[in-house]
Specification:
Number of strands: 16
Helix content: 25-40%
Radius of gyration: 19 Å
Number of domains: 2
Oligomer: single chain
CATH architecture of the largest domain: Alpha-Beta Complex
CATH class of the largest domain: Alpha Beta
CATH superfamily of the largest domain: Medium-chain alcohol dehydrogenases, catalytic domain
Strand content: 25-35%
CATH topology of the largest domain: Quinone Oxidoreductase, Chain A, domain 1
Shape: globular
Number of helices: 12
Distance between the termini: 11 Å
Structural class: alpha/beta
Length: 327
């Protein structure tokens, strides 16, 4: 099979090499799938650079999320018919940017029928992260105001849709007119182009000075630093990631004086600590997709040969929605 390997750490276009490798075989509890689509995620960029919390031994096949077609089951695996579409991550944490992949059977779920292969590949991580972040960690309630940073990105675009589905007023922050237009099309009530406006006074004006009840922050850096200036009484700042490359320094005295909470989310922990919660969330998310309330925003559908350049555009902040590769 063909697969993109990280052979040395660096930027995606430099770190990735297309290799011809033996077809993998499923072990006990595993499923071999033909990759129908693989979605790009920012952790893919960080893994190329060696800056992610998971650091596979070099060389490794890149890619953490896919939609696959079941080919063969390993010992002890039942319930997967040949040809069934499934979504999730490759066994071992990476390996989606290839023609074939092995997945742990207890960590995959069925692809929603209403989504095509590219949409299904982009449905797992972003929407699971959004669901656990907004509902389990931040307890977003109907009528509250949700501020979403990087709202035109893969994770942010999902949070905008989930916020609207939960009955919240959504303020989306994006960089540039094209991204702002995409966020508006997703249904955000208010959109701020951070390249031409400061979101803090906009949030305070829209909320009558109260501020945002929940801040969804996959960016860190200045996005976090400015968010504390427009967080509501008893608000929750949800820390999703640090796409800016800057991990904020938190002033806990400020959190005390303004009475807000800083809430972290590492969604991957639920796969080992509460896998049933992931399956339950998938059922709810699948229903929302069937009802038309959520649908992945696919910015680019590319071939397998285009993985390095597509991933580099994600690293450089030049993508809208999700970039998906279709082998």
């Amino acid at each position: 099979m063909r697969a993109w390997q990280v052979e040395r750490l660096g930027e995606p276009r430099e770190a990735l090499t297309l290799a011809e490798l033996p077809d993998p075989s499923p072990g006990p509890g595993q499923l071999l799938v033909r990759v129908r689509a693989a979605a790009a995620n920012f952790p893919d960029v960080l893994m190329c650079r060696g800056g992610y919390q998971v650091r596979p031994e070099l060389p490794f096949i890149a890619g953490v999320e896919l939609c696959g077609e079941a080919v063969a089951a390993g010992p002890g695996v039942t319930g997967f018919a040949a040809g069934a579409r499934v979504i999730g991550g490759p066994a071992g944490g990476s390996g989606a940017f290839a023609e074939l992949a092995v997945m742990d059977a207890d960590r995959i779920v069925a692809a929603p029928d209403v989504l095509d292969d590219a949409e299904a590949a982009a449905f797992f991580i972003a929407y699971q992260t959004g669901w656990f972040g907004l509902h389990r960690r931040a307890r977003l309630a109907p009528g509250e105001t949700l501020l979403v940073h990087a709202a035109a990105g893969g994770v942010g675009s999902g949070a905008v849709q989930l916020g609207k589905a939960a009955g919240a007023r959504v303020i989306g922050v994006a960089g540039g007119p094209a991204k702002a237009a995409a966020v508006r099309a997703l249904g955000a009530d208010v959109v701020v182009d951070r390249l031409s406006a400061d979101f803090v006074p906009v949030v305070n004006e829209v909320t009558g000075g109260r501020g945002a009840d929940v801040v969804y922050d996959p960016v860190g850096g200045q996005a976090y630093a400015r968010s504390v200036k427009c967080i509501a009484f008893e608000g929750r700042i949800l820390v999703i990631g640090f796409a800016s490359g800057q991990i904020p320094t938190v002033a806990l005295n400020h959190a005390l004086l303004k009475n807000y909470a800083i809430v972290g989310l590492h969604w991957g922990l639920y796969q080992s600590r509460d896998p049933q919660a992931i399956r339950d969330a998938h059922l709810r998310l699948t229903k929302l997709a069937a009802d038309g309330a959520i649908r992945p925003l696919i910015g680019e559908r590319l071939g397998l040969a285009e993985v390095p350049e597509g991933l580099q555009r994600l690293a450089d902040g030049g993508t809208i929605g999700r970039t998906v590769f279709l082998p």
